[in-house]
Write a structure and sequence with these properties.
It is a single chain. By secondary structure, this protein is of the alpha/beta class. Among the domains are: about 90 residues, Gyrase A, domain 2 (2-Layer Sandwich), CATH 3.30.1360.70; about 55 residues, no CATH class; about 120 residues, Isoleucyl-tRNA Synthetase, Domain 1 (Orthogonal Bundle), CATH 1.10.730. The chain is built from 21 helices and 14 strands. The strands form four sheets. Strands 6-5-4-10-11 form a five-stranded parallel sheet, with helices on both faces. A three-stranded antiparallel sheet has the order 1-3-2. Helix 2 packs across helix 3 and helix 7 crosses helix 8. The chain starts with a helix and ends in an 8-residue tail after the last helix. The protein binds one RNA strand of 77 nucleotides through helix 2, strand 8, strand 9, strand 14 and helix 17.
Length: about 550
RNA sequence: GCGCCCAUAGCUCAACUGGAUAGAGCAUCAGCCUACGAAGCUGGUUGUUGCAGGUCCGACUCCUGCUGGGCGCACCA
């Protein structure tokens, strides 16, 4: 795998720093400046060294630039960097040569997706657990967003060389299953003509009637109603996820975990280490020894377990299955739970930072300009299914990721289903379809022998540069653990393409130029397709 | 009372995790198809970044305090 230009320049900067007297412990940062007049790549290292070297940033930058210029040859970068300049307060800006741009485009055309891949994961095993909704009803919009984010993040990590598994933790026992069973039982009685009182905290949704009918038909015993209903609902959830394009590698049953004895084993270990103690007739986990502000009950005084008990064993088991990095994707109502779970990881002697917990903020659904209130128990909430039916998979997925994951999201159903330019997904898909259309219409064949150096227009060079940012963007997605940046990037890339399209005619009488431009748009197509694939959004050839 | 998140243009959000003149979309107005898809492109208007201090060469970003909003603080899951 070829080292990308960024890594090579960073290496060059490091090398060039060697002439300085100590004082640099920082890894040089190299960014793509937002404004092209600040070069193609830029580092702020001189400013950051200013303090420890006790010199003005510009003086350092100039000295460093001289070193860089003389080191460049040895790094084989002479042909690729057109110019290095010190600008502004002490930024060192790199201007890439056309030769480099053409070679990079050529690389994308020959190796396609592989040219975009950077192996950052090195085969590290990652478990992403997400959605994990209780099987008591259809998936909500909150789950939908978690599903979109988790699935895309998993795809991105896979692309970056991580070995990723997607897992769904199934809460198939406990109090909510009991209530589910009793809800079903009552509805069965009601259907049989009995007068019933239906408690407020029972599941109110219409679907309970369907389950009740089926349970009656199959003659399910009263004691089994809870699990029967849970299985039935799990079937619904699986179909919803399937239609949303989200596939899990494994479904981890809490019930089976309980029966496996793994919880007891985990407790034995913690007891031995002194992290469990009895008090008030209950068993407590000493999470305050770690990062929690309060110890937590794991076995209640009535002998039953709290939710934390299986969760401790579950996460222990994740590591025991060989995963080195755990990513949990949760809703905001669980953020108070982070410290106690991380504490349990630490109690087993593991690094709590190897467990990343991402809080996906809620999406507020707007219909007719008004927010729709949500209540699971009353059965009044917008489901993933409704969103899918109304706006479609592509718009839904893209929309959910079009904001930073940690930010609230306003999801206006009326706008999303309009399928107008207001929805950014069409802007990106349109660029993709437009490219296909041009390729279809062209008499000249797309070939490998195009002379790319004919691409000289400002828009053409800008477009190639934009293509080169793809792996940098994925890098940001990795460090922020958020696919959001990719949605932004695809919009920017599409914008660069549409601008190019408007100013540079692809198909013309000039056969050589036509070939070169076909090659360019093919490069754009490859990158947009790769990006949409990672997001789980389709890439239509016609719209 | 304690903890977490948020506050940026009329609205929805950015600002690449501390960088260069705080930018997009929507809305609105004016242009661009006898050439590859007008679901596109070009141009015009919009700011005391909630308030007050502090750190820094540099602050929307970090720290402290305040104001206003969301969420969480279970022997629930």
């Amino acid at each position: 795998m070829k080292k990308n230009i960024q890594e090579r320049i960073i290496q060059l900067i490091k090398e060039s720093l060697k002439g300085f007297d100590g004082g640099f412990s920082e890894e040089p940062q190299l960014d793509f400046p937002q404004d092209p007049k600040f070069g193609d790549l830029s580092t702020n290292i001189a400013m950051r060294l200013s303090k420890s070297l006790k010199k003005p940033p510009r003086d350092i930058a100039i000295k460093l630039m001289v070193n860089i210029n003389s080191e460049m040859e040895g790094h084989g970068l002479r042909d690729y960097i057109k110019e290095v300049r010190v600008e502004g307060a002490g930024f060192i800006n790199f201007y890439l040569s056309e030769k480099y741009l053409y070679e990079s485009l050529k690389d994308i055309l020959t190796r396609e997706k592989e040219a975009l891949r950077v192996d950052l994961g090195k085969g590290k095993r990652v478990l992403i657990e997400f959605v994990s909704a209780n099987p008591t009803g259809s998936l909500s919009v909150a789950h939908a967003r978690q599903a979109a984010v988790g699935d895309a993040l998993a795809s991105i990590l896979e692309f970056l060389g991580f070995k990723v598994k997607r897992e769904y933790y199934l809460n198939d026992e406990g109090n909510q299953i009991n209530i589910l069973g009793r809800s079903t039982e009552l509805r069965m009685k009601e259907l049989a003509g009995e007068k019933i009182e239906f408690p407020e905290n029972y599941y109110q949704g219409e679907y309970i009637y369907d389950i009740a009918k089926e349970a009656k038909q199959k003659g399910i015993k009263v004691d089994d109603l809870g699990h029967f209903a849970a299985d039935y609902i799990l079937g619904i959830i699986k179909r919803e996820l399937d239609d949303f394009g989200v596939k899990f590698d494994s479904w981890y049953s809490q019930k089976e975990l309980g029966e496996s004895g793994k919880i007891e084993k985990a407790f034995d270990y913690l007891k031995k280490k002194g992290f469990l103690y009895d008090s008030d007739g209950a068993l407590w986990f000493k999470s305050t020894d770690f990062s929690d502000d309060k110890d937590r009950v794991v076995v209640k005084s009535d002998g039953s377990q709290t939710y934390l008990a299986p969760d401790i064993a579950y996460h222990d088991d994740k590591y025991k299955r060989g995963f080195e990095w755990l990513i949990n994707i949760w809703g905001p109502d669980h953020h108070g739970y982070i410290n106690r779970l991380k504490s349990s990881v630490a109690a087993f002697g593991r690094d709590p930072d190897s467990l990343s917990i991402l809080i996906v903020q809620l999406a507020t659904i707007f219909r007719d300009g008004k927010p729709v209130q949500m209540s699971t128990r009353r059965g009044e909430f917008i489901t993933l299914r409704e969103v899918l039916d109304e706006v479609g998979r592509d718009a839904a997925r893209f929309f959910f990721m079009a904001r930073r994951t940690s930010s609230h999201l306003d999801f206006d159903l009326d706008i999303a289903k309009e399928q107008s330019a207001q929805n950014p997904v069409y802007y990106v898909q349109y660029a993709h379809a437009r490219i296909h259309s041009i390729l279809r219409n062209s008499i000249v064949k797309l070939g490998k022998n195009a002379d790319l150096s004919l691409l000289k227009e400002k828009e053409e060079l800008a477009l190639i540069k934009k293509l080169l940012q793809f792996s940098y963007i994925l890098n940001i997605c990795l460090s922020t653990q958020d696919p959001y940046m990719l949605t932004v990037y695809l919009q920017e890339l599409s914008e660069s393409f549409h601008k190019f399209y408007d100013l540079c005619r692809v198909l013309s009488d000039d056969e050589q130029l036509t070939k070169a431009r076909l090659a360019l748009i093919e490069g754009v197509r490859i990158v947009i397709a790769a990006g949409l694939d990672l997001l789980g959004v389709s890439k239509p050839e016609k719209m």
